[in-house]
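A reminder from the course coordinator: this example appears on the midterm review sheet, so study it carefully.

Given structure:
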């Protein structure tokens, strides 16, 4: 690797085919790269996030920074899964620890029937209420009405490494229609330190469909969002909508033509959230 020309890998996370899930850039050795250069590389790659890894002091530990084309984010789930699988492709499956701006994130990679699967364990999550005025403004920017929401899932901000506003649609048709005020929503989110909106619809007790507008990163919609999935798991547990231990299935990217599947595990003895998915190299 040179400072001017780092090796950039490309992986699709939460997918078993390169055309599915969420593509991420991965730089396995970002030693010597400045913040400005990382941002420039992320902009050149053009994906919602690119991860930059620097080997840590201990074995199988890495310092990781995540950049969208416009800004750095504290944590990114799909780029974490992509990076862990990229490492496993080179040195074999195992356990890695990623030191991120949000905290240390352990990631375990195993080989299964669908290829390499990475499972990340989130930092300590938290959930907070949202002022009614903020909900009203977010809905207006989305072009939603209050009647479009599912009253069983009140708006909240979930955090498991990054902040996400959770809004639940009452119907799949409402979720499928996404046409929002890009600049307005970006300003709204920056003012509240939000990374995405987590728009969800419940298909069954443990099955959800989700979409994530990401204008603060310069992207209309993130195709598969591991950090938001972790935050959503914490939200459901806090709300009492599910009881641990349980495993949730989140379908994302279908409306973009990039279907992905995220597995969210909640354990009774651990408040952290585990998110897992496969990843494959993009030729």
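Designed residues:
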């Amino acid at each position: 690797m040179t400072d001017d020309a780092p090796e950039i890998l490309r992986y699709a996370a939460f997918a078993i085919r390169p055309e599915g899930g969420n593509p991420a850039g991965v730089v396995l050795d970002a030693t010597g790269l400045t913040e400005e250069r990382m941002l420039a590389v992320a902009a050149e790659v053009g994906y919602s996030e690119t991860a930059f890894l620097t080997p840590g002091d201990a074995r199988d530990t890495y310092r990781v920074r995540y950049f969208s084309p416009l800004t750095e984010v504290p944590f990114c789930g799909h780029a974490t899964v992509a990076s862990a699988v990229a490492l496993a492709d080179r040195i074999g499956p195992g356990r890695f620890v990623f030191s991120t701006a949000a905290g240390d994130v352990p990631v375990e990679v195993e080989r299964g029937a669908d290829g390499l699967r990475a499972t990340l364990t989130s930092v300590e999550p938290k959930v907070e209420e949202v002022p009614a005025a903020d909900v009203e403004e977010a809905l207006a920017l989305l072009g939603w009405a209050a009647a479009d929401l599912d009253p069983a899932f009140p708006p909240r901000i979930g955090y498991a490494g990054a902040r996400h506003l959770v809004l639940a649609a009452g119907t799949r048709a409402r979720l499928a229609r996404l046409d929002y005020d890009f600049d307005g929503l970006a300003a709204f989110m920056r003012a509240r330190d939000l990374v995405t909106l987590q728009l969800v619809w419940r298909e069954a007790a443990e099955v959800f469909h989700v979409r994530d507008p990401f204008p603060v990163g310069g992207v209309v919609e993130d195709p598969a969002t591991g950090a938001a999935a972790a935050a959503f798991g914490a939200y459901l547990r806090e709300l009492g909508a599910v009881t641990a231990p349980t495993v949730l299935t989140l379908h994302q990217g279908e409306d973009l033509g990039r279907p992905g599947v995220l597995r969210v595990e909640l354990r009774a003895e651990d408040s952290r959230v585990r998110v897992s998915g496969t990843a494959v190299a993009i030729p």
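Helices lie at 35-45, 77-91, 132-142, 172-176, 182-191, 226-239. The longest strand covers residues 270-281.
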